Every structure is written in structure tokens, then in C-alpha cells.
Amino acid sequence: MRKLITSLGTAAHRMLTLGAATEHTFSRFKMYEHIRTAAAEKTFAGPALSISHSRHLVALLGVPDVPIAEANYPEVSISHLPHADGAFGLVVSDQVFEHIDDLPSNAMRESLRVLRPGGWVLHTTCFCTAYHGPGDYWRFTAEGLRSLALRCGATEAISGTEGHPIELLTNLLGWTRLGVPKARWHPLRWLAWRNRPSYGTTVWVLARK
Fold this sequence. Notes:
Elements: H1 2-16, E1 22-23, H2 29-39, E2 48-51, H3 56-60, E3 68-71, E4 88-94, H4 104-113, E5 115-126, H5 142-151, E6 156-163, H6 167-172, E7 180-181, H7 187-193, E8 200-208
Parallel strand pairs: 2-3, 2-4, 4-5
Antiparallel strand pairs: 1-7, 5-8, 6-8
């Protein structure tokens, strides 16, 4: 039954977005938009470090073309980065912290260690999401993730959480990884934009060293 509902939901999404350009996915649309807003008045510079295939976050922050180094698991652990102190101006990870097989504080300290003073880290992770293991270890609130950054050495931090009960429906329909229409008038964009933080599924923190 679940496969049938997903198939019908995917077909409905194709019909509703026929000819429409899409961006992001339903599961991350609100988070990315709120990060973009929070970063609008900040200044970022490279070089950047992308942890576990997260280089798209560099573009999300509006950073111009900068060198981007990759630190991808399992070759590299976020808790043991093989880089010198202060090597980067920006460190990003997208949906990584829930998968850390270590204390999250170790990972946060490492990401701040390789930043130069004044540099920024952006980490996104989970709050109210289903277990998706093996290798699924942690959940965070926005306040908890911000507190973690500050306790590990950040001088300032902004955090947020996004979600809505209606996401249960979009997940059931199989829309989690499908795109949201770019057109602001589109009803699916309106649907994806609904936000009740108390039902948050995604969490993020933008912190400066």
C-alpha cells in the first residue's frame, strides 16, 4: 500500500509541476530559505571545507567562486579533520551531525579549529525525523545546536528549526526528495513554505569563530 501511495504521489507531483522549474527538495526547502535569509547580511570568504558532500551550502550562502576542499566520510571523519588550524574561512556540513559516531562536541570543536578567526561554520542536522540507520545517532533542537557551537568556541551563533505536521503527508506521498516549484504563486511552494518550529524536522546553526 505504501508503495502504491508513493507512486500515485510522485505521479501527482509530476502533473502539478509540469513545465515548472523546481529547486531544493520538500524536506529542506524551508531550511535552505531561512539559512539564506540569516546569511544575507553576513560576509563569508574562502577557502571552504565541505564535509561529506555539502559543497552546495557554499553556493547557498552566496559565496563567490572560492577553492573548496572535500572531507568526505568514511575517508575523513569530521571529528578528526586532517587540516591545519585556521586553514579555512568557511566550513559546511549538511545533515551530518546526526550520523557522528562520536561526541558531537568533538566534531563541533574540530570544525571550529580549522577555521581562521572571523570564519564561519554552517551545520544542518535533524530534530523530529525517523530513524534512518544504521549510523543514525543524534537529534538536536535549535537551542541545543546553538549552545553546542558556543560552548565549543564560537563567538556568536544563529540557529533555527523548520517543519510542519503537513510534512507527514508529503513524506507519505514520497515528495521528500522531490523539488519545490520556483514560482512564488505555485500552491506547492506555498505548501512547502508552511512552518511550525515545534514540529521541526530540520535544524541548523550558523556560527562564527
